[in-house]
């Protein structure tokens, strides 16, 4: 079984890659995605679930806004998983997640996801290893269920930001008036647990990989958005979708 060492994975674009040319290419891909998403909605045979994970300030909100914000809002939904409510905690951990799975024709984005139940819960020791392994199996089964029995194509992105870039972005939330609404003093405490989070993410990639992860270098937003848009474009293009004819 493959193992992961995030410390060996770059958080930046390859050297020599042109920022301007990449942004032009991304704009072209987004134009094509607009048509592909319209086809997805019209044909209504497939759905797409996009899972976006990452440390605080890794750029999850920006990725959702800049990649998916260009698409028809009638065919795209984004859902942010917060701390579970009392009702949600009274059910199994996937209960609230399954309710947000996309119907056919839709793209559903998870800003954080069911993976929080084997990440933050383990970091803070609310979930022991035995329970975590049982949850990992349930997650694999859940994603397989979506793909095999609901025609849902699952894309999983980990936004790989460096601790230095994270600290800079967290400081911006204090200084920049347009970003102060994002400020949460707990983010700085969570950042101190970086090494523990990396260990838990690496085990997550190792044991929850029946649907493969895409590790996205996230220190540069233009490159992060290009990779996400490209992956989504590849999946939608592969579906060979067609507009349905007149209803009889």
How is this structure best described in words?
With 248 residues, the protein is an alpha/beta fold. Helix content is 48%, strand content 13%. It is built from 10 helices and 5 strands. A 5-stranded parallel beta sheet has the order 2-3-1-4-5, sandwiched between helices. 28% of the residues are buried.
Topology:
Elements: H1 19-43, E1 47-54, H2 60-68, E2 76-80, H3 86-89, H4 95-98, E3 107-111, H5 120-123, H6 129-149, E4 152-160, H7 163-175, H8 185-191, H9 194-207, E5 213-217, H10 221-238
Parallel strand pairs: 1-3, 1-4, 2-3, 4-5
Helix pairs in contact: 1-10, 2-10
Summarize this, please?
The chain has 248 residues and is α/β, with parallel strands linked by helices. The chain contains 10 helices and 5 strands. It starts with 18 loop residues before the first helix and ends in a 10-residue tail after the last helix.
Mean pLDDT: 96
Report the order of strands and helices: HEHEHHEHHEHHHEH
- Show unreliable segments: none
How much helix, percentage-wise, in residues?
Answer: 40-55%
How would you sum up the global shape? globular
Task: Classify the secondary structure makeup into a structural class.
Answer: alpha/beta
Distance between the ends? 51 Å
Task: Kindly estimate the percentage of residues that lie in beta strands according to DSSP.
Answer: 5-15%
Number of strands: 5
């Amino acid at each position: 079984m493959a193992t992961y060492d995030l410390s060996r994975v770059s958080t930046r674009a390859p050297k020599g890659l042109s920022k301007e040319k990449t942004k032009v290419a991304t704009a072209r891909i987004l134009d094509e995605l607009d048509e592909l998403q319209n086809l997805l909605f019209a044909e209504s045979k497939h759905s797409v679930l996009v899972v976006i994970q990452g440390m605080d300030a890794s750029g999850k909100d920006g990725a959702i806004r800049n990649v998916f914000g260009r698409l028809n809002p009638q065919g795209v939904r984004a859902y942010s998983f917060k701390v579970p409510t009392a009702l949600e905690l009274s059910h199994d951990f996937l209960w609230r997640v399954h309710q947000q799975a996309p119907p056919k024709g839709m793209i559903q984005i998870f800003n954080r996801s069911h993976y929080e139940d084997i990440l933050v819960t383990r970091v803070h020791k609310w979930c022991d290893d035995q329970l975590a392994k049982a949850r990992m199996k349930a997650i694999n089964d859940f994603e397989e269920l979506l793909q095999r029995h609901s025609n849902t194509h699952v894309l999983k992105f980990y936004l790989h930001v460096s601790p230095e870039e994270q600290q800079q972005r967290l400081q911006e939330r204090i200084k920049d008036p347009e970003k102060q609404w994002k400020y949460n003093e707990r983010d700085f405490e969570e950042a101190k647990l970086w090494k523990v989070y990396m260990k838990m993410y690496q085990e997550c990639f190792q044991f929850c990989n029946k649907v493969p992860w895409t590790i996205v270098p996230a220190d540069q937003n233009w490159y992060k958005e290009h990779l996400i848009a490209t992956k989504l474009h590849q999946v939608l293009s592969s579906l060979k979708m067609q507009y349905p004819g007149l209803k009889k």
